[in-house]
Write a structure and sequence with these properties.
1 helix, rod-shaped
Length: 78
């Protein structure tokens, strides 16, 4: 009886290992690529936002330079 129980436990452990291995394969080939695609899309969105922010900062800087020039001209007139 003891050998039978030991053999049953071995079979159970082997089946549990098989299920864990199949779950790992599923995760590696199905879940990880979709997670990677989601991460890549997020990176692309952040890059776009960064580019738009940079453009806005350039416009603000240009306007600031223009306003400073106008202020300098007005001070020279006074």
């Amino acid at each position: 009886m003891s050998e039978r129980l030991h053999g049953g436990l071995q079979v159970g452990a082997a089946m549990l290992g098989l299920v864990a291995g199949l779950t790992g394969l599923f995760g590696a080939f199905v879940l990880l690529p979709s997670r990677m695609e989601a991460a890549e899309r997020q990176i692309a969105r952040l890059n776009d936002r960064d580019e738009k922010s940079r453009e806005m900062l350039v416009r603000i800087e240009e306007r600031l330079i223009q306003v400073q020039g106008e202020i300098s001209k007005r001070k020279e007139k006074e």
